[in-house]
Amino acid sequence: MRHIGLLIGMPIILATMVFYLTMDQPKTYDSKARVYTGIASGSTIELEDTKIDFRAANTAYDNLLNLIKARTTIEAVGLHLFAQHMALGESNPKIISAEKYESLLEEVPREVKDLVVKGDVEKTLENFVALKDSGHSNYIYKLINLDHPDYSIEKISGKVGLNRISNSDFVDIQYESDDAAICQNTLLILCEVFVKLNADIKVNQSDAVVKYFEGQLNNSTVHLKEAEDELLDFNRTHNIFNYNEQTKHIAAEKEEFEIKYFEIYRKFHASKAILDELESKLATHEKKRIASENIMELRKKLSLLNFEISMGSLGMKKDSTLSASDSNRMTDKMKEVAEIEAKLSSQVEDLYQTDYDNKSVASTNILATWLQNTIEYEGYNAQLQVMEQKRLEFEELYKKFSPLGATMKRLERKIDIAEREYLSLLHSLGLAKLKQQNVELKSNIKLTEVPYYPINPKPSKRMMLVAVAGIVGFLLVVIVIFLLEFLDSNINTAARAEDKIELSVSSIFPVINLEDKGIDYAFIQNKAVNAISRNVLLNQYKKSEMEKPVVNMLFSTQEHEGKSFICKNLITKLCELDYKVLHITYDVQDLGIQSKYYQKITYPVNDRLYKISEIHEFDSEDSIQDYSLFDFVVLEIPGIIKNPFPVKLASTMDYTFLVTRANRAWSEADKNALRLFKEATTGPEPTIILNGVKVLEMETVLGELPKKRSLFRKFMKQVVQFRFFNKRSIA
After folding, report:
1. Measured distance CA(602)–CA(564) in Å, rounded
2. What is the mean pLDDT of each run of 10 residues along the chain (731 residues)?
3. Is 170 helix (H, G, I), strand (E, B) or coil?
4. Is 106 exposed, middle or buried (0-12, 13-18, 19+ CB in 10 A)?
């Protein structure tokens, strides 16, 4: 309980300090806003049946909360609040208190005041932002980035509280300030700023996607149009309006043509063969007549007209449509053919009349047949010539259309790819716009509870701070005491002495403080001396009368351990009990013991001590004749680390006592010296007399010490020792 004053005083001191330091603590006002985010369960225009992704929702909430407390957001709030206050023409209790406003005007420099546009917060804000961005040494930049209680980023951020209400879509935003108006307006500005920033971020993200797909769609439209125009130009260049139908039509015409061609070809050669046969039956002069110039001229005209008629009738002219004039011309040509045939028939008849003979009947039949076959032959010949030209045209047409198909397929494939790309981008653009609308819908955060104007300040935490200061003071002292006790390497207590020295403690003696009037040190000292004397007396009864005196050696490992003090008190007590005591010591100082039972011998400290084997060898003057007259011999030797000691005599000692101070550490030198001493002794193992222990340690021997204590101190002692049910008597 020696630390009871510190355990009580330190908490009281700290609590008192906090009490006085918080006397002028400003009042604190707080306000709250509640916003609806719609992140988890908000409406959507997506057509798919979507499920709630809780991980994505939590991430979205984390992003939103981080955005609220982001440096950019808080900076914008601080600047806007400062601009709002500076734009006032006079103090407005709904925006800032008069005291705060006057203080603000006093500290703002003239260069900043010149930027203020009274009544126009937005213009003032623009001017302040421009000044802040102009450098790092201007007033606005320092105002925002240092530690102003109302406008700095650090202070505003530290007073903003965020809380999501369970797993709902609502988020509470709290703010506190020493000015009720600033508290409300800061929260209003914060809500406005972060809602706008959130919408800008979300919408800008979706806008970028939409713009990308719009740009790609425009490029795809151009590519598709270029491919279509290329195919259109190709069709125009090659007169193609429907390639597949045209090729089918050409193939069908070609097949039909081949049939007609072979039919005409067959008839031509058949008529030619008949004509050759008829001419072979005619006489020579008849042959000459039919080969006359007039007949050949008529045949030539007939062949030419048949060719033209065949050209017209088979549609072999390059202009495939006949006008009304062409139709009339064909009719005229048919008439000419009839006239030429009539003339040719007339020429043949004239030939018949000229060459009339006995064979007239047979010749007339041959000539008539020849005339008929000649007309057919010329017709077939004209048709065959037309067919040959037609065949050449078909070959040219095939040569033209064959490569066009591959080119057209390549162009159509190009159009198909461009069209599919266009449709894919069009679909993606539609989804992007749908996503954009959905994002805009979800990013439309609603302020469901507008920040209120706080009327009453928050309850003061002054008493709680005082209590915490007291508790902290108490715990701090306790921790320091425990640390000091834990780190203290001194012997201090009997238990630690036995643990460190590895010897048993026979007696302890307290340190005496005569200035402390609260403790009866005379009583404690007497009890301690009695305890030491009791051990010495008990040792006496272990020896017979013939073995007197009982020799007790008091030694120490170092100097100034209090051996002489212990010896004085011990000898005084033994003499009071009428025991004859011989005190052998190296200390020449007079102990002041006035008793007929006391005698003292002093000896010098030198190397001769090593050779002493009997106690009478200390008496160089032979002043004592019979040592058996003494009941006890108290032999005091100097510290054995730095001085010699009687090794031979130590082995004959009845009892040895190691005197050591409690307020020092037990070193390796002490251990080594004690080990050598124990090896030299053959008697009982030394015991410890622990000198200078703290008074409270005496309670382990004497019980509760006689001390004046108040009821409070008695109670605190019981609390510390956990003796709540301790009684002083049976009743």
Report:
1. 13
2. 74 86 80 84 53 73 88 93 91 89 91 90 93 90 91 92 86 91 93 85 70 85 85 76 70 76 78 72 50 58 63 51 57 67 62 49 56 69 75 73 74 86 86 70 74 84 84 89 82 89 88 69 80 79 69 91 90 90 90 88 90 87 86 92 87 87 91 88 83 80 58 56 55 46
3. strand
4. exposed
Q: Is 428:213 a contact under the CB 8 Å cutoff?
A: yes
* Tokens 């510190």 -> residue: 6
Compute the Cα dihedral for 648, 654, 657, 658 and give only its sign: positive
DSSP symbols for 678-702 = HHH--SSPPEEEEEEE-GGGGHHHH
Closest CA to 567 of 590, 549, 548: 590
Angle of CA points 275, 279, 284, to nearest 5°: 165
Q: What is the pLDDT of residue 304?
A: 66
Sign of dihedral through CA atoms 327, 329, 330, 336?
Answer: positive
184-203 b/e with 16+ CB inside 10 Å = b? bbbbbbbbebbbebbeeebe
Pairing state between β 29-36 and 170-177: antiparallel
Question: For residue 500, what are the contacts with CB-CB under 8 A and spacing of at least 6?
Answer: 491, 666
* SS (HEC) of 582-622: EEEECCCCCCCCCCCCEEEEECCCCHHHHHCCCHHHHCCCC
Token pair 């509760």 is found at: 704
The amino acid at residue 584 is I
